Structures are given as C-alpha cells and as structure tokens.
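Q: Given only this backbone (239 positions), what sequence would you predict?
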C-alpha cells in the first residue's frame, strides 16, 4: 500500500513549480490530490492530468471568502480533507526604502494571510473528523535575512511562527509542520541564484521532488511530530 493511499490532500498553488512537484509526488504516493490554482488554468489542467485526472479548483487566495469557498468545494467533491499543503506564495525583490503598502500587501496577502485562513478552514474540518496533517511551505528567507527581500522574509518568518502556534492550537488531532526550501530554480538561474548555489554546502540546487519528499514525511508522521520546521536547503541555512 502506498504511504498516502486514498488520503485527500489539497495543495495550494499546485499548477506549477514546487507546487506541481508536490502534487505529482503525492499522487504517486497514492493520495487523492486536489489541485488549486488562480491564474494558471492551462498549467493546472496539465498537472491534474499527470495526477490521474485530479480535480482542479480555482480561488484567489487574497480573498478570505474565496478561501472558504475553495474548502467547501473540495469537501463537497471528496467528502473530506485529510491534508493541506500551503504552497501558494509570491516573491519580489524591492529595496526596503521604496516598499509601498501595495508592495507589502501583495506579498503578505498570499504568503501569510492566506496561509493562516487556509489552515483555519482545514483545521475546522479535520478537528470535526478524524484529524489531519497540515504542511506549510516557508522558505530559507524565513530563516535568514535577505536585504532586498525584507517584506518577503517577514512573511515567511511569519509562516514559521504561525506553524508553531497552530501546532499547539490544533493538537493533538491535527499536526502543523513546515518545510523551508533552499535554492530550487526553475529555468535558467540568474546571477543571485548562482551565488546562492555556490554558497550551498551541497554544491548544487535542490529539486521540487526533494521538497515533496519532506512534505510526505510530515503528512505521514505520527502526531508526535508537530510544530517543526525542516530546512531542505543543502545546508545553506547553517552558513
């Protein structure tokens, strides 16, 4: 039997990149995957096809009402939700002296606010049933400061503390853990990415599959593993 055989797992932002890799890996592990997207409909349909024609669900996670509707639709389709992977995120590079309120909200509305309200919606259903597993994708930027990404670092550090707080709030039936990816490039890496790869003790970038393996660990671990942050970064956070 596959480790996630039959479990219903919603992966936010799973049309492309790391989210797609997580969705594919979960499907291979036997999960019934719910593919979430906002603007990437074609990519979502392609990912869903690779996941055994998994259902797709659209929602703009900036709006709490749409988050509520997303979970209602997933619950109606599958009858339950066993796991949530909060992967959807935004990333921009801006000098802190020029960050505007709009710049700040653009990042935090998805990276932190949406992560919380997705956790809330999932936990309500899991606590009313047999429990469940929540995995929040944070970032190396939540563990280490980046001068041109203060707003992003703050959002991902917030995800890490949110993970720890909710692991206490939802225990013992629901575990909440976080995976913090290091350098996971898609396409040709730019100069900054190349520098980070060179600084990584493993001397290479990571892959979406390696992040997905860490996610699967948390989704299948006992409830004695909760409130934890696992950096999958080739050792870069230790430098």
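A: Predicted residues:
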């Amino acid at each position: 039997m596959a480790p996630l055989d039959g479990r219903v797992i919603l992966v936010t932002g799973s049309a492309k990149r790391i989210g797609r890799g997580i969705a594919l890996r979960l499907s291979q592990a036997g999960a019934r995957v719910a593919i979430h997207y906002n603007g990437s409909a074609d990519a979502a349909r392609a990912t869903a096809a690779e996941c055994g024609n998994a259902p797709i669900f659209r929602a703009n996670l900036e709006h709490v009402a749409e988050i509520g509707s997303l979970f209602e639709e997933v619950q109606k389709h599958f009858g339950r939700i066993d796991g949530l992977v909060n992967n959807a995120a935004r990333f921009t590079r801006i000098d802190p002296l020029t960050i505007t309120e709009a710049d700040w909200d653009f990042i935090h509305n998805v990276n932190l606010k949406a992560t919380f309200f997705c956790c809330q919606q999932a936990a309500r259903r899991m606590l009313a049933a047999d429990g469940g597993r929540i995995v929040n994708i944070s970032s190396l930027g939540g563990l280490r400061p980046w001068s041109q990404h203060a707003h992003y670092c703050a959002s991902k550090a917030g995800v890490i503390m949110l993970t720890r707080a909710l692991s206490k709030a939802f225990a013992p039936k629901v575990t909440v853990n976080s995976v913090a990816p290091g350098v996971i490039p898609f396409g040709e890496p730019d100069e900054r990415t190349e520098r980070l790869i060179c600084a990584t003790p493993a001397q290479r970038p990571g892959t979406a599959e390696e992040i997905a393996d860490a996610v699967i660990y948390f989704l299948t671990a006992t409830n004695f593993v909760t409130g934890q942050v696992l950096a999958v970064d080739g050792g870069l956070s230790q430098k």
